Amino acid sequence: MGTRDCKHICDESSPAIGEAGKTGEWRSLMPVIHHNKCIPAKQKKPSCFLCWLYCPDAVIRKTIPIKINLEYCKGCGICMQVCPAKAITMV
Ligand code: SF4
Ligand code: SF4
Question: Which of 50, 63, 81, 82 to mutate to test the pocket of ligand 2 (most atoms within 8 A of CB)?
Answer without folding.
Answer: 50
